Amino acid sequence: MIPVTKPFLPSREKLDQYLDGIYERQWLTNNGQLVQELTRRLEEYLEVDNLLLVANGTLALQIAYRALGVSDSRSDQHPEAITTPFSFIATASSLKWDGIQPVFVDIDPKSWCLDPDRIGKAITDRTRAIVPVHVFGNACEVEAIDTIAQRYDLKVIYDASHAFGVKYKGESLLKHGDAATLSFHATKLFHTGEGGAIVFKRKEDLERAKKMINFGITGPETIEELGINAKMNEMQAAMGLCVLDEIADNMSARQHVWEFYKDNLTSKCQFQQWNSNATQNYAYVPMVLGSEDKTLSVVKGLGDINVGARRYFYPSLDEVDFISTASGGVPNSRMISKKIICLPIYSSIKDKDLSKIISTINGFDEVKG
Ligand SMILES: *Cc1c(COP(=O)(O)O)cnc(C)c1O
Predict the structure, then answer these.
(1) Fewer Cβ in 10 A, N or C end of the chain?
(2) Atom 5 of ligand 1 has which residue's CA nearest to it?
(3) What are phi and psi of 317, to 5 degrees?
(4) Could you tell me if the CB of 285 is within 6 A of ligand 1?
(5) How far away, in angstroms, is 27 Cα from ligand 1 center?
(6) Do 209 and 327 belong to one domain?
(7) What's the rounded Cα separation, in Å, for the pair 107 and 84?
(8) Does the beta carbon of 132 lie inside 6 Å of ligand 1?
């Protein structure tokens, strides 16, 4: 079976050394030495300040909403946040879970990111934030979004779960927004098994979030404010330190896979239009086929040869009934989500497997037209 993705497993010897250290120190969590080391190393690698490691990418979003005051309701009415329906469920469900109503605004049909021109019309007196996603690592129109946020005094929290290491105009893409969040889930480009991080624009927001991830506790006998448990532990950090050491090799292997697909797929398909100011991180290989029928046939055809291509992201999140306000006004997201598949990509995938996948997809066109 060729899965759509495989977690990157770093050097076992190196991981063992870190685990030996954990056993010696007998310190397993609560801002341990390895969490501190990974924080420094990630700030350096990503070229950012104010990075906070957390237990997973969903809590990263929720802590960011709280730290930036999006969720604290001053009225009886739910606050709203404008977001994209073309994402993983956690983008919208994290809002809903925190009592913030997601309001879906359509995506651009080429970049598949939130269309800034449509945001204005969706703003109401309850809107508190914009939560765009750099989907598949593709940078959003960050300047246009910043302008709107400033005009209407809204917070911007980028779900940058897919955008590890992406540069925009020569600087980290994560510097945009009041906060940008990362997921370090096992299937992500950089991972800690489970894990995540928030990059804050302002130091005071980082400091508030630091308290929030540890129950609001600030001293042996002081509980300063409402908090939750969102701490990363030492085993997660050990994995992250090992994965980070090998990230360059991992990324160049993935670049090879990505280019192999791009060079050899002759099938009529649409690739994502990449933001011309941004670099690529080769996290995913999404493509949009001509119709939903063709997409279903290709997924089935690949399944028949034991290849796990996935319809990702499907369905469009406005169609998830417990989330949606049933706007129905997001035709681009519905269209793209019906016709998209993500092809297998991971560093250890073999060229011969890629060739098999490519000829299956190309061959499909020859038979069915
Ligand atoms: C993976 C992902 C998340 C959730 O991250 P977890 O670490 O799994 O909690 C959120 N948003 C997007 C876009 C994701 O892909």
Answers:
(1) N
(2) 57
(3) -65, -20
(4) no
(5) 28
(6) no
(7) 7
(8) no
Pocket test for ligand 1, best of 83, 84, 91, 182 (most atoms within 8 A of CB): 91
CA of 204 from ligand 1 middle (Å) equals 25
**Would the CB of 83 count as within 6 Å of ligand 1?**
no
Please state the domain count of the chain.
2
Helix (H) or strand (E) holding 333: helix 331-339
Q: pTM for this one?
A: 0.97
CB-ligand 1 contact for 161 (6 Å cutoff): yes
Q: pLDDT of the chain along its 369 residues, tens only?
A: 999 999 999 999 999 999 999 999 999 999 999 999 999 999 999 999 999 999 999 999 999 999 999 986 556 678 999 999 999 999 999 999 999 999 999 999 999 999 999 999 999 999 999 999 999 999 999 999 999 999 999 999 999 999 999 999 999 999 999 999 999 999 999 999 999 999 999 999 999 999 999 999 999 999 999 999 999 999 999 999 999 999 999 999 999 999 999 999 987 889 999 999 999 999 999 999 999 999 999 999 999 999 999 999 999 999 998 887 755 599 999 999 999 999 999 999 999 999 999 999 998 876 554
Mark whether 332 and 199 lie in a shared domain.
Answer: no
Atom of ligand 1 nearest to the CA of 195: 7
Among this protein's residues, is 356 annotated catalytic?
A: no
Ligand 1 atom with the shortest distance to the CA of 87:
13
- Residue 326 and residue 317: Cα distance in Å, rounded? 10
Same domain, 231 and 256: no
CA distance linking residue 236 with residue 193, whole number of Å: 6
On whether residue 207 sits in a domain, the answer given is yes
Of 188, 231, 338, 339, catalytic: 188
Q: What is the CA radius of gyration of the chain?
A: 21
Contact of 293 with 339, CB cutoff 8 Å: no
Other residues' Cβ atoms within 10 Å of the Cβ of residue 274? 15
Tokens standing for 97?
């879970």
Q: Residue 56 C-alpha to ligand 1 middle, in angstroms?
A: 8
Tell whether ligand 1 has an atom less than 6 A from the beta carbon of residue 250. Answer: no
Spatial neighbors of 150 by CB under 8 A, at least 6 apart, are none
Is the CB of 159 within 6 Å of ligand 1? yes
Q: Is residue 6 part of a domain?
A: no
